[in-house]
Amino acid sequence: MLDNNRKLNEILRLSSELNTIQDLDILLEKILFEARSFVNADAGSIQITEGNNLIFSHVQTDSLQRKLPPGQKLIYTTFKIDINRSSISGYVACTGEALSIKDAYRISPDAPYKFNSSYDEKSGYKTQSMLAIPLITNRKEILGVMQIINKLDASGRVIPFDKDDELYALHFANTASMILQRAQMTRALILRMISMAELRDPKETGAHVNRVASYAVELYEKWAHNHALPRQEIDKKRDILRMAAMLHDVGKVAISDLILKKPSRLTGDEFEIMKTHTIQGANLFKQQHSEFDDISIIVALRHHENWDGTGYPGHIDIKTGEILEKDANGRPLPFRGDEIPIFGRIVALADVYDALSSRRVYKSAWDEKDVLDEIKAQSGKKFDPEIVDIFFDSLDMMRSIAARYPDTE
User: Is residue 192 domain-resident?
Assistant: First the structure.
């Protein structure tokens, strides 16, 4: 009974911890990690409902992760499956019932669902024991399905999940679903803000901002690891950074359509007006009530500052418009080098990488080689050389993120 009380107390502690996470993707990652840890499972996935499909949003496999160099993440391919009773996850999503499977390769031929071994074949992994649990709101809506795979005993041998595992995993999933619903509402609110910007500027799409935010988080995690930041601080900052990075160009809603949608090159005066989107965006968060406001100001204001001091908006008071430091021409002196906050330096590279890699109404997507050559050429000029090095070390992950958030036609 003591052990049961300990487990229930752990669920309550985890619920409180999950409630502090605001970003949807980071919350999903944390939910899956904690659910696996709770029942000592080697692997798992979370699939989120999107229309009539389940989207494989997050995948974790400890035994494969351990084979990678320190600091490198496991890369997986995002895919979707139809919601129907023929697959394990589809069955759980259709029925709202949890499934506990002793051996995925020995499911009864009479069962309505089948195990798809092609994912194992692609990854070189062997799925055996499984818990597939629905993520259900208090309105009985299916948010998605969590699969927990291969429970390990003390010697590392794969064993079946027991009834207690199923009971506690279901309890944790129910609690996590409520928190997940809140995070989905936050994400939806941010995307609505992006949609308003998209009405003004077709470049500012949901896919674009999701990619920029995801690139930024990956770059920040490696930078923070290199600088030996505490794990707790990294987790907190990346949560906020992801949301703030999505809103990096929200200030463009204040720029005239005559400038924002001009098909030809901007004049000098027009470009000066365009540059004010950094200040306009920062001003949306000037009533600073939280660290989210603080970081959103930094990202909006500083993602066009250049490492060599040729960017903008420079030393200016966003509340009064007063120039705090002037250059030889009487304009705000740009920030340069380490003077640019790290989140500004990171989002600067993430934004340019995505802009060059993406097709727009006014341009084709650049070839990857040309994009990478340009980023390399701008090291020490537009971009922080350290962030450029981290970017190239993370290139496979950048490609994976791009595939996860494709542009829609």
Answer: no
Decide if 194 is inside a domain.
no
Distance CA 21, CA 42 (A): 24
In a domain? residue 193: no
Supply the DSSP string of 64-120, one letter for each residue. HHTTSPTTPPPP----EEE-STTBHHHHHHHH---EEES-GGG--TTSS-B--THHH
Give the distance from CA 147 to its chain's centroid.
20
Q: Is residue 253 part of a domain?
A: yes
| Number of structural domains the chain divides into | 2
Type of residue found at 74: L
Per-residue model confidence as pLDDT tens digits over 98-114: 999 999 999 999 999 99
Q: Note whether 252 and 395 are same-domain residues.
A: yes
- Rounded distance, CA 15 to CA 31, Å? 10
Q: Which of 127-141, 194-208, 319-333 has the lowest mean pLDDT?
A: 194-208
User: What does the alpha-carbon distance between residue 141 and residue 184 come to, in Å, rounded to a whole number?
Assistant: 13
Q: Which of 30, 151, 237, 252 is catalytic?
A: 252
Q: Are 66 and 166 part of one and the same domain?
A: yes
Task: Assess whether 326 carries a catalytic annotation.
Answer: no
Tens digits of residue pLDDT in 23-80: 888 999 999 999 999 899 999 999 999 899 998 888 999 999 988 887 778 777 777 8
CATH number of the domain within which 86 lies: 3.30.450.40
Q: Domain containing 107: what range?
A: 2-184
* pTM, to two decimals: 0.82
Yes or no: say if 206 and 213 are a contact pair by the CB < 8 Å rule: no
Q: Are 101 and 160 in a shared domain? A: yes
